[in-house]
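Problem statement: downstream parser choked on a complex file, so we are re-checking the raw output for the zinc ion run. The parser issue turned out to be on our end (a line-ending mismatch), but while we're here, posting the original submission so the record is complete.
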Amino acid sequence: MLLPILLSAVQAAAPMVRASPVPPRLVVSLVIDQLRPDYLERWRPQFRGGLAWLLREGVFYANGEQDHAMTSTAAGHSTMLSGRSPASTGIIANDLGVPDRASPLIRSGGPGASPHRFRGTTLADWMVARNPATRIFSISRKDRGAIMAIGRARVPVYWYTQGTFTTSRYYADSLPSWLSAWNAREPATRLAGHAWELSRPAADYPEADARPFERGGIRHVFPHVLSTDPVAAAVELEAHTLIDSLTLDAAWAGVRATGLGTDAITDLLAISLSATDNIGHRYGPGSREVHDHLLNVDRWLGIFLDSLATIVPLDQLVVSLTSDHGVTEYPEAGAGGRASIGTEVTALNAWGRDTIGVRAGAVGYSGLLMARTGDLAKRGVDIDSLAGAIAARVRRLPGVLTVYTPRTLRAARATDAEAGRWRRQLPSDAEWLVAASLRPGWIWGRVGGETGHGTTNLDDRHVPILFRVPGTTPVRITRMVRTIDIGPTFAALLDIKPMERVEGVALREVLPKRSSR
Ligand SMILES: [Zn+2]
């Protein structure tokens, strides 16, 4: 369905013109959370909107990778415009990403958030360093999607919580009037009772609707109806297809209010659409829900890009599309299984408390077991032998492929690809004991009812990377490229020098002839 509030934003259809390259007025960094590249290829014949346009006009790298070990949202977003891996951005896991009690939200009870753990700079900082008049704007349903996309910059950054878009004290002391007005229309609560129906005839979807394992077999078939209670509906929306429409509508309101793209100075707009992630977790990449949701995203993106084209000439509009991670199919669909290091976490905390009287602080993120190794060492614990003992037990868990300890990771050969991913994940000052990788098809987490990502496997690392740059030739590239290449590519396009050493490289197919170097 098309939201009336979004439709009202459409002022004219985008003219499809190709002109000689001129400096961009607007760079759009577009992220679709948990977008697998095969989605774009499988459903391309049914796309008519923004995804169709990007695929038609863009340089499409079908084998992009989030080339690090723990493929999750905060870490993934931190790589894109920084040109650096999580080991360098400092973002290990979602829980160790944006949560920040010192930065409460404005007019909302949601958890505080800021980029206080983010290390170094991103394209946003590089652009502002070159021209302080550069406008930056970032928005997402998720705090980590909005914040981690641009790093530490104190600029307009907004995310959704409990029915409204807001920000935290890190960024501002109050909401701008345009956003207060947007929130006052109560677009979220007004969707109470809305039914998500298929947008095409059922015969157009090869996927079965009622796979028994989807969402634990509860409320797993169309239509998906939001609660009739407005407060409950506003919360349910966080995982609903329509939240991406609301995010784009708020983005458009913000673009107009802040004047992005309205003068010759290149501005930066970062948008991360989150619903694909929630829908993928619940129903899986082989579901009818993910298929239909991507058709919705395609349509809403088309409206948004048409709207943008009314203020930014298409020959001055640069767009990238990528994702923070992929996803693994439900193990219950036939392959792999579920693994957990939870038993080891519990055992280590109990041992620390009962045996040596120390808070071990053990916590597990995907296959990573972190603990207060400094405190343990001070109490005389031999960290190498402790890590080795835990690693030996983790190695025996079903589905586990390889296990590293700090010592074995240091000693691993440069040709060890798994070791390389963990090295690019873990900052040198991270306190950890064991890092485990799973066999393909396996996921972390014991409970059923959802599938996931977070492993080092290709299904979780694999993302599309697409650039729509005026003056380039649309082409599909199969060479493996990385999300850390996106920031350096934009820097080269804009003739900006990154303010620090980056790991990624500028992708040559995206650089127009004039700026090839
Ligand atoms: Zn997720």
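For whoever reads this later: Residues 34, 73, 277, 281, 453 surround zinc ion (CB under 6 Å).
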